[in-house]
Amino acid sequence: MEPFVCPRCGNKDARYIGIKFGKPYCRRCISFQGVKAEYQPKKKKDVNLHLDYPLSKEQHFLSEQVKSNFANGINTLVYAVTGSGKTEISYGVIAFAMSQGMNVGFALPRRDVVIELYFRLKEAFPEQKIVAVYGQHTSALTGDCIILTTHQLYRYPHYFDLLVLDEIDAFPFKGDPMLRRFFLDSIRGHYVMMSATPSKDVVDEFKQDGHAILSLRTRFHRHPIPVPRVIRKPLLLQYITICKELNRFLRKGKQCFIFVPTVNMAASLFAFVSKFCPGGNYVSSKREGREEIIAAFKKGTFKYLVTTAVLERGVTVKGLQVIVFHADDQIYDAAALIQIAGRAGRKMSEPTGEVVFLCQRESEGIKRAIEEIKFCNRFL
Question: What is the pTM of this model?
Protein backbone atom coordinates (compact mmCIF):
# COMPACT_ATOMS: atom_id res chain seq x y z
CA MET A 1 0.00 0.00 0.00
CA GLU A 2 1.27 3.45 -0.90
CA PRO A 3 2.01 5.64 2.14
CA PHE A 4 -0.62 8.30 2.82
CA VAL A 5 0.33 11.86 1.83
CA CYS A 6 -2.00 14.62 3.01
CA PRO A 7 -3.39 16.35 -0.10
CA ARG A 8 -3.69 19.67 1.76
CA CYS A 9 -0.42 20.11 3.67
CA GLY A 10 1.77 17.40 2.13
CA ASN A 11 2.40 15.64 5.46
CA LYS A 12 3.52 12.02 5.19
CA ASP A 13 4.85 11.58 8.73
CA ALA A 14 3.04 8.56 10.19
CA ARG A 15 3.04 10.16 13.65
CA TYR A 16 0.51 12.73 12.39
CA ILE A 17 -1.69 10.35 10.41
CA GLY A 18 -4.78 8.82 12.00
CA ILE A 19 -7.48 6.42 10.84
CA LYS A 20 -11.18 7.24 10.99
CA PHE A 21 -13.89 5.00 9.53
CA GLY A 22 -11.14 2.99 7.89
CA LYS A 23 -9.67 6.01 6.06
CA PRO A 24 -6.49 7.94 6.83
CA TYR A 25 -6.57 11.60 7.81
CA CYS A 26 -3.94 14.16 8.73
CA ARG A 27 -3.74 15.42 12.31
CA ARG A 28 -1.16 18.09 11.47
CA CYS A 29 -3.58 20.33 9.57
CA ILE A 30 -6.91 19.13 10.94
CA SER A 31 -7.39 22.39 12.86
CA PHE A 32 -7.37 24.38 9.62
CA GLN A 33 -11.09 24.19 9.03
CA GLY A 34 -13.20 27.07 7.80
CA VAL A 35 -14.76 28.91 4.89
CA LYS A 36 -12.63 29.13 1.75
CA ALA A 37 -12.60 31.89 -0.84
CA GLU A 38 -13.63 31.07 -4.38
CA TYR A 39 -11.71 32.54 -7.28
CA GLN A 40 -13.73 35.03 -9.28
CA PRO A 41 -12.30 37.19 -12.07
CA LYS A 42 -12.61 40.96 -11.67
CA LYS A 43 -12.86 43.80 -14.16
CA LYS A 44 -9.95 46.05 -15.02
CA LYS A 45 -10.02 49.44 -13.32
CA ASP A 46 -8.01 52.52 -12.55
CA VAL A 47 -5.93 52.22 -9.38
CA ASN A 48 -4.44 55.31 -7.76
CA LEU A 49 -1.44 54.94 -5.47
CA HIS A 50 -1.12 57.60 -2.79
CA LEU A 51 2.28 58.15 -1.16
CA ASP A 52 3.19 61.03 1.13
CA TYR A 53 6.77 60.91 -0.15
CA PRO A 54 8.50 59.88 -3.39
CA LEU A 55 10.40 56.62 -3.69
CA SER A 56 14.16 56.86 -3.68
CA LYS A 57 15.98 56.25 -6.96
CA GLU A 58 16.91 52.72 -5.83
CA GLN A 59 13.39 51.95 -4.61
CA HIS A 60 11.85 53.16 -7.87
CA PHE A 61 14.24 51.03 -9.95
CA LEU A 62 13.43 47.89 -7.97
CA SER A 63 9.71 48.62 -7.99
CA GLU A 64 9.70 48.87 -11.79
CA GLN A 65 11.79 45.71 -12.10
CA VAL A 66 9.46 43.72 -9.84
CA LYS A 67 6.47 44.92 -11.88
CA SER A 68 8.20 44.01 -15.15
CA ASN A 69 9.11 40.56 -13.84
CA PHE A 70 5.53 39.89 -12.78
CA ALA A 71 4.13 41.06 -16.11
CA ASN A 72 6.52 38.63 -17.81
CA GLY A 73 5.65 35.69 -15.57
CA ILE A 74 8.81 35.77 -13.46
CA ASN A 75 8.80 35.20 -9.69
CA THR A 76 11.02 37.59 -7.72
CA LEU A 77 12.96 37.59 -4.46
CA VAL A 78 13.53 41.10 -3.11
CA TYR A 79 16.62 40.84 -0.92
CA ALA A 80 16.65 44.25 0.74
CA VAL A 81 18.28 45.46 3.92
CA THR A 82 16.06 46.22 6.92
CA GLY A 83 14.75 49.77 6.65
CA SER A 84 15.12 49.92 2.87
CA GLY A 85 11.36 50.24 2.33
CA LYS A 86 10.54 46.80 0.94
CA THR A 87 6.82 47.34 1.43
CA GLU A 88 6.86 50.52 -0.64
CA ILE A 89 8.84 48.69 -3.34
CA SER A 90 5.95 46.22 -3.66
CA TYR A 91 3.27 48.90 -4.12
CA GLY A 92 3.93 49.22 -7.84
CA VAL A 93 3.28 45.58 -8.69
CA ILE A 94 0.27 45.50 -6.34
CA ALA A 95 -1.24 48.53 -8.09
CA PHE A 96 -0.57 46.98 -11.51
CA ALA A 97 -2.16 43.63 -10.59
CA MET A 98 -5.25 45.29 -9.08
CA SER A 99 -5.66 47.47 -12.19
CA GLN A 100 -5.72 44.30 -14.28
CA GLY A 101 -8.56 42.83 -12.21
CA MET A 102 -6.34 40.23 -10.60
CA ASN A 103 -6.69 38.69 -7.14
CA VAL A 104 -3.93 40.13 -4.99
CA GLY A 105 -2.64 38.98 -1.60
CA PHE A 106 0.04 40.13 0.81
CA ALA A 107 0.99 37.47 3.36
CA LEU A 108 3.10 37.76 6.51
CA PRO A 109 3.83 35.27 9.29
CA ARG A 110 2.71 37.46 12.20
CA ARG A 111 -0.68 38.88 13.07
CA ASP A 112 0.65 42.14 14.55
CA VAL A 113 2.45 42.99 11.33
CA VAL A 114 -0.64 42.11 9.26
CA ILE A 115 -2.65 44.65 11.26
CA GLU A 116 0.08 47.28 10.86
CA LEU A 117 0.31 46.69 7.11
CA TYR A 118 -3.47 46.76 6.69
CA PHE A 119 -3.60 50.40 7.77
CA ARG A 120 -0.57 51.32 5.65
CA LEU A 121 -2.12 49.83 2.53
CA LYS A 122 -5.47 51.51 3.22
CA GLU A 123 -3.61 54.84 3.17
CA ALA A 124 -1.65 53.92 0.04
CA PHE A 125 -4.76 52.71 -1.85
CA PRO A 126 -7.64 54.72 -0.35
CA GLU A 127 -10.03 53.93 -3.22
CA GLN A 128 -9.56 50.16 -3.11
CA LYS A 129 -11.10 47.55 -0.81
CA ILE A 130 -8.28 46.37 1.46
CA VAL A 131 -9.16 43.39 3.67
CA ALA A 132 -7.25 41.96 6.65
CA VAL A 133 -7.57 38.24 7.44
CA TYR A 134 -6.10 36.67 10.58
CA GLY A 135 -7.19 34.53 13.54
CA GLN A 136 -10.65 35.58 14.83
CA HIS A 137 -10.86 38.13 12.01
CA THR A 138 -12.16 36.15 9.04
CA SER A 139 -15.65 37.53 8.35
CA ALA A 140 -14.52 39.21 5.10
CA LEU A 141 -12.32 37.08 2.87
CA THR A 142 -12.35 38.91 -0.47
CA GLY A 143 -11.36 42.36 -1.65
CA ASP A 144 -9.06 44.18 -4.04
CA CYS A 145 -6.05 43.28 -1.88
CA ILE A 146 -6.07 40.78 0.98
CA ILE A 147 -3.55 41.19 3.82
CA LEU A 148 -3.31 37.93 5.73
CA THR A 149 -1.22 35.72 7.97
CA THR A 150 0.45 32.72 6.36
CA HIS A 151 -1.76 30.50 8.53
CA GLN A 152 -4.84 31.82 6.67
CA LEU A 153 -3.51 30.94 3.21
CA TYR A 154 -5.30 27.58 3.42
CA ARG A 155 -8.53 29.51 2.79
CA TYR A 156 -7.31 30.52 -0.69
CA PRO A 157 -6.58 27.40 -2.78
CA HIS A 158 -5.32 28.31 -6.28
CA TYR A 159 -6.56 31.87 -5.74
CA PHE A 160 -3.91 34.60 -5.98
CA ASP A 161 -2.78 35.93 -9.34
CA LEU A 162 -0.20 37.92 -7.36
CA LEU A 163 0.93 36.96 -3.87
CA VAL A 164 3.53 39.01 -2.04
CA LEU A 165 5.13 37.14 0.87
CA ASP A 166 7.19 39.26 3.25
CA GLU A 167 9.39 38.16 6.16
CA ILE A 168 9.97 34.71 4.72
CA ASP A 169 12.68 34.13 7.33
CA ALA A 170 10.38 34.81 10.30
CA PHE A 171 8.71 32.42 12.73
CA PRO A 172 6.33 30.65 12.30
CA PHE A 173 6.66 30.48 8.48
CA LYS A 174 10.38 29.73 8.47
CA GLY A 175 11.02 26.00 8.46
CA ASP A 176 7.34 25.01 8.49
CA PRO A 177 6.57 22.70 5.52
CA MET A 178 2.83 22.94 6.13
CA LEU A 179 2.76 26.74 5.81
CA ARG A 180 4.99 26.57 2.76
CA ARG A 181 2.52 24.13 1.18
CA PHE A 182 -0.36 26.51 1.96
CA PHE A 183 1.64 29.27 0.27
CA LEU A 184 2.37 27.29 -2.89
CA ASP A 185 -1.19 25.95 -3.18
CA SER A 186 -2.67 29.46 -2.91
CA ILE A 187 -0.81 30.73 -5.98
CA ARG A 188 -2.66 30.85 -9.27
CA GLY A 189 -0.23 33.18 -11.03
CA HIS A 190 3.12 34.39 -9.67
CA TYR A 191 4.68 35.61 -6.45
CA VAL A 192 7.11 38.06 -4.92
CA MET A 193 9.09 37.07 -1.83
CA MET A 194 10.77 39.71 0.33
CA SER A 195 13.32 39.53 3.14
CA ALA A 196 16.18 41.44 4.68
CA THR A 197 17.78 38.16 5.78
CA PRO A 198 16.83 35.30 3.44
CA SER A 199 18.46 31.97 4.14
CA LYS A 200 21.09 30.51 1.82
CA ASP A 201 18.61 27.75 0.94
CA VAL A 202 16.04 30.29 -0.27
CA VAL A 203 18.60 32.20 -2.35
CA ASP A 204 19.95 28.96 -3.85
CA GLU A 205 16.42 27.78 -4.66
CA PHE A 206 15.64 30.99 -6.55
CA LYS A 207 18.87 30.69 -8.51
CA GLN A 208 18.28 27.04 -9.39
CA ASP A 209 14.69 27.66 -10.50
CA GLY A 210 15.71 30.61 -12.69
CA HIS A 211 13.72 33.16 -10.71
CA ALA A 212 14.85 36.77 -10.31
CA ILE A 213 16.77 38.06 -7.29
CA LEU A 214 16.85 41.83 -6.74
CA SER A 215 19.09 43.31 -4.04
CA LEU A 216 19.07 46.60 -2.18
CA ARG A 217 21.79 47.16 0.42
CA THR A 218 20.95 50.70 1.51
CA ARG A 219 18.14 52.24 3.52
CA PHE A 220 15.74 54.52 1.68
CA HIS A 221 17.04 57.62 3.51
CA ARG A 222 20.68 56.75 2.65
CA HIS A 223 21.81 56.65 6.29
CA PRO A 224 23.65 53.63 7.71
CA ILE A 225 22.04 50.89 9.77
CA PRO A 226 23.11 51.48 13.40
CA VAL A 227 26.05 49.22 14.24
CA PRO A 228 25.29 47.58 17.60
CA ARG A 229 27.49 48.36 20.58
CA VAL A 230 28.34 45.16 22.45
CA ILE A 231 28.52 45.31 26.25
CA ARG A 232 29.80 42.14 27.91
CA LYS A 233 28.71 41.70 31.50
CA PRO A 234 27.87 38.83 33.86
CA LEU A 235 24.14 38.15 33.74
CA LEU A 236 23.33 39.86 37.05
CA LEU A 237 25.21 43.01 36.05
CA GLN A 238 23.24 43.17 32.81
CA TYR A 239 20.20 44.17 34.87
CA ILE A 240 22.06 47.19 36.24
CA THR A 241 23.41 48.08 32.80
CA ILE A 242 19.92 47.99 31.29
CA CYS A 243 18.70 50.60 33.79
CA LYS A 244 21.78 52.74 33.17
CA GLU A 245 21.45 52.64 29.36
CA LEU A 246 17.68 53.06 29.43
CA ASN A 247 17.88 56.12 31.69
CA ARG A 248 20.48 57.61 29.34
CA PHE A 249 18.05 57.27 26.42
CA LEU A 250 15.10 58.59 28.41
CA ARG A 251 17.02 61.69 29.50
CA LYS A 252 17.45 62.45 25.79
CA GLY A 253 13.71 62.14 25.30
CA LYS A 254 14.05 58.93 23.27
CA GLN A 255 11.76 55.92 23.39
CA CYS A 256 13.27 52.45 23.66
CA PHE A 257 12.58 48.78 22.97
CA ILE A 258 14.22 46.28 25.33
CA PHE A 259 14.22 42.87 23.66
CA VAL A 260 14.25 39.67 25.72
CA PRO A 261 14.45 36.05 24.50
CA THR A 262 11.42 34.56 26.34
CA VAL A 263 7.85 35.41 27.32
CA ASN A 264 8.50 34.84 31.04
CA MET A 265 11.56 37.07 30.93
CA ALA A 266 9.51 39.94 29.49
CA ALA A 267 7.32 40.12 32.59
CA SER A 268 10.12 39.53 35.10
CA LEU A 269 12.55 42.02 33.55
CA PHE A 270 9.86 44.68 33.35
CA ALA A 271 9.03 44.12 37.02
CA PHE A 272 12.69 44.86 37.84
CA VAL A 273 13.29 47.74 35.42
CA SER A 274 10.04 49.54 36.26
CA LYS A 275 11.23 50.02 39.86
CA PHE A 276 14.06 52.23 38.63
CA CYS A 277 12.64 53.48 35.31
CA PRO A 278 8.92 54.31 35.51
CA GLY A 279 6.77 54.98 32.47
CA GLY A 280 7.12 51.70 30.59
CA ASN A 281 5.21 48.51 29.85
CA TYR A 282 5.84 45.07 28.38
CA VAL A 283 4.44 42.96 25.55
CA SER A 284 4.71 39.38 24.34
CA SER A 285 2.64 36.92 22.34
CA LYS A 286 0.84 36.00 25.59
CA ARG A 287 0.21 39.55 26.81
CA GLU A 288 -3.47 40.48 26.73
CA GLY A 289 -4.17 43.86 25.19
CA ARG A 290 -0.76 44.07 23.53
CA GLU A 291 -2.20 45.83 20.47
CA GLU A 292 -3.52 48.61 22.71
CA ILE A 293 -0.18 48.81 24.55
CA ILE A 294 1.75 49.09 21.28
CA ALA A 295 -0.65 51.75 19.99
CA ALA A 296 -0.22 53.70 23.23
CA PHE A 297 3.57 53.44 22.91
CA LYS A 298 3.44 54.91 19.40
CA LYS A 299 1.43 57.83 20.76
CA GLY A 300 4.11 58.44 23.40
CA THR A 301 2.11 57.20 26.38
CA PHE A 302 4.89 54.79 27.33
CA LYS A 303 8.59 55.67 27.26
CA TYR A 304 9.80 52.11 26.74
CA LEU A 305 8.58 48.57 26.12
CA VAL A 306 10.16 45.32 27.25
CA THR A 307 9.31 42.97 24.39
CA THR A 308 9.84 39.55 22.92
CA ALA A 309 10.23 38.93 19.19
CA VAL A 310 6.67 40.19 18.55
CA LEU A 311 8.16 43.65 17.84
CA GLU A 312 11.20 42.36 15.97
CA ARG A 313 9.63 43.24 12.61
CA GLY A 314 7.15 45.52 10.94
CA VAL A 315 7.12 48.32 13.52
CA THR A 316 8.47 51.81 12.82
CA VAL A 317 8.79 54.38 15.61
CA LYS A 318 10.47 57.77 15.29
CA GLY A 319 13.63 58.16 17.40
CA LEU A 320 13.58 54.59 18.70
CA GLN A 321 16.59 53.19 20.59
CA VAL A 322 17.14 49.45 21.09
CA ILE A 323 18.59 47.29 23.86
CA VAL A 324 18.87 43.50 23.55
CA PHE A 325 19.07 41.71 26.90
CA HIS A 326 20.86 38.36 26.92
CA ALA A 327 21.78 38.89 23.24
CA ASP A 328 23.92 35.75 23.28
CA ASP A 329 20.88 33.54 23.93
CA GLN A 330 20.59 30.73 21.38
CA ILE A 331 17.25 32.07 20.16
CA TYR A 332 19.04 35.09 18.66
CA ASP A 333 20.67 34.05 15.41
CA ALA A 334 22.26 36.64 13.12
CA ALA A 335 19.05 37.18 11.14
CA ALA A 336 17.03 37.94 14.28
CA LEU A 337 19.65 40.35 15.62
CA ILE A 338 19.86 42.18 12.29
CA GLN A 339 16.10 42.61 12.26
CA ILE A 340 16.15 43.89 15.84
CA ALA A 341 18.95 46.36 15.12
CA GLY A 342 16.93 47.51 12.13
CA ARG A 343 14.22 48.90 14.40
CA ALA A 344 16.43 51.93 15.08
CA GLY A 345 16.85 54.85 12.70
CA ARG A 346 14.02 53.98 10.33
CA LYS A 347 12.42 57.42 9.94
CA MET A 348 13.57 60.02 7.42
CA SER A 349 13.07 62.71 10.07
CA GLU A 350 15.26 60.82 12.54
CA PRO A 351 17.46 58.36 10.63
CA THR A 352 19.92 57.53 13.42
CA GLY A 353 19.68 55.61 16.67
CA GLU A 354 21.61 53.44 19.09
CA VAL A 355 21.53 49.66 19.44
CA VAL A 356 23.03 47.93 22.47
CA PHE A 357 23.69 44.18 22.71
CA LEU A 358 24.06 43.00 26.32
CA CYS A 359 25.72 39.62 26.64
CA GLN A 360 28.10 37.47 28.63
CA ARG A 361 29.98 36.46 25.49
CA GLU A 362 29.99 37.44 21.84
CA SER A 363 28.06 34.62 20.21
CA GLU A 364 28.41 33.64 16.58
CA GLY A 365 25.04 35.29 15.95
CA ILE A 366 26.25 38.61 17.39
CA LYS A 367 29.48 38.52 15.37
CA ARG A 368 27.75 37.65 12.10
CA ALA A 369 25.01 40.27 12.61
CA ILE A 370 27.56 43.05 13.13
CA GLU A 371 29.62 41.89 10.14
CA GLU A 372 26.53 41.90 7.87
CA ILE A 373 25.42 45.35 9.06
CA LYS A 374 28.90 46.78 8.44
CA PHE A 375 28.98 45.12 5.02
CA CYS A 376 25.65 46.69 4.01
CA ASN A 377 26.76 50.12 5.26
CA ARG A 378 29.70 50.00 2.84
CA PHE A 379 27.25 50.51 -0.07
CA LEU A 380 26.39 54.05 1.03
Answer: 0.89
